[in-house]
Design goal:
With 271 residues, the chain is an alpha/beta fold. Helices cover 50% and strands 15% of the residues. The chain has helices at residues 12-23, 39-48, 64-68, 81-85, 107-113, 145-156, 169-196, 201-220, 226-232, 239-249, 252-269; strands at residues 5-8, 32-36, 54-57, 71-74, 96-100, 117-123, 133-139, 159-163. Helix 1 links the parallel strand 1 and strand 2 (32-36). Helix 7 packs across helix 8 and helix 7 crosses helix 11. The longest helix has 28 residues, at 169-196. The two termini are 31 Å apart. The structure holds NADP nicotinamide-adenine-dinucleotide phosphate. NADP nicotinamide-adenine-dinucleotide phosphate (NAP) binds at residues 8-14, 35-38, 41, 58, 75-78, 80, 83-84, 87, 101-103, 124-126, 177.
Length: 271
């Protein structure tokens, strides 16, 4: 694939991106160089990570090996960007690729922070940790077709990849990266509904999850439209229309739409 991969920040998401590359032997552990901030994380990864990758912490002697890698994934929190860019011992190295997964940080800002790099912005989501992620990617204009292909390969190892113009990445983030929290809230609230009706919480949650899986399969695999499915389970003066009336009265749909807009706007503020 390529000779070595540097990873700046080796937390939950970076592990989820890198591990499938190693599982599928697209890269060997010795080709990976990761940088973490603290000695504590360094020890922890050395002891517990299933592959014997090269791991460094920011004050260790050999930390510059991470910066020498021709392709780097930047996976720290957006607030940590400033401290990372100051660490770069090789700011003038040419033609390296930097793939940032930081929420909201634009390619233009990345290119200012990492001059001489081809910068790529990738937005991924938490199901990447089970190989069911969705990743949206935008590239700087100067990147070539071959480079795009291997960047796509990295993320295709852990899910689906969609290529976008950069101005769509904030809405993409809201819809795919923030929305797992919204879905979790819905599962929790519906389960509480079951609890209120006398079911045990665990059973209630199991029923909600099974119902959701079945519903999603009907929509996705059987190509039902959402309207068809809704009409199929809503009979005149029945139970479902009574439930839907309550949601309409409480502006449920509008609340969801507004929540996506709010997440999009927040993502834009990170830049
Ligand atoms: N969580 C999500 O659902 C999700 C989804 C998609 C994208 N993202 C994005 O993914 C990024 C990482 O998220 P995460 O949840 O994986 O974070 P995380 O688990 O907190 O990992 C952050 C990593 O960065 C390291 N780090 C911090 N400051 C550093 C520095 N100055 N130099 C080098 N390494 C440094 C940390 O090292 P120490 O452990 O030593 O502090 C840690 O390994 C974020 O930008 C987030 O927006 C998150």
């Amino acid at each position: 694939m390529f000779e070595s991969l540097g990873v700046i920040g080796f937390g939950n998401i970076a592990k989820a991106i890198v591990t499938p590359l190693l599982d599928k032997t697209l890269l060997e552990p010795e080709q990976i160089h990761c940088l973490v901030k603290t000695r504590e994380s360094y020890e922890n990864i050395k002891k517990n990570y299933k592959y014997n990758i090269n791991i460094h912490y920011i004050n260790s002697e050999d930390a510059s090996l991470v910066w020498e890698c021709p392709v780097k994934i930047l996976s720290v929190k957006p607030q940590q960007l400033e401290s990372v860019k100051e660490l770069n011992p090789l700011p003038n190295q040419n033609n390296q690729i930097l793939i940032s997964i930081l929420a909201g940080v634009s390619i233009q800002k990345l290119e200012k922070s990492f001059p001489n790099h081809f910068c790529v912005r990738a937005v991924t989501n938490i199901p990447i940790t089970i190989g069911r992620g969705i990743t949206g990617i935008s590239y700087t204009s100067s990147i070539d077709k071959e480079q795009k292909e291997f960047i796509k390969n990295i993320f295709e190892s852990s899910g689906k990849v969609y290529e976008f113009e950069e101005n769509y990445l904030d809405i993409f983030l809201a819809l795919t990266s923030s929305a797992p929290a919204i879905i979790s809230l819905i599962v929790e609230a519906l389960s509480d509904g079951g609890l209120s009706g006398g079911l045990h919480k665990k059973l209630s949650e199991e029923l909600v999850l099974e119902m959701m899986l079945g519903t999603i399969l009907l929509l996705k695999e059987e190509n039902f439209s959402t309207m068809d499915l809704k009409n199929m389970v809503t009979s005149p003066a029945g139970t479902t229309i009574s439930a839907l009336r309550v949601l309409e009265k409480r502006s449920f749909r509008s609340a969801l739409i507004e929540s996506i807009i709010a997440a999009t706007n927040r993502s834009k503020q990170f830049n």
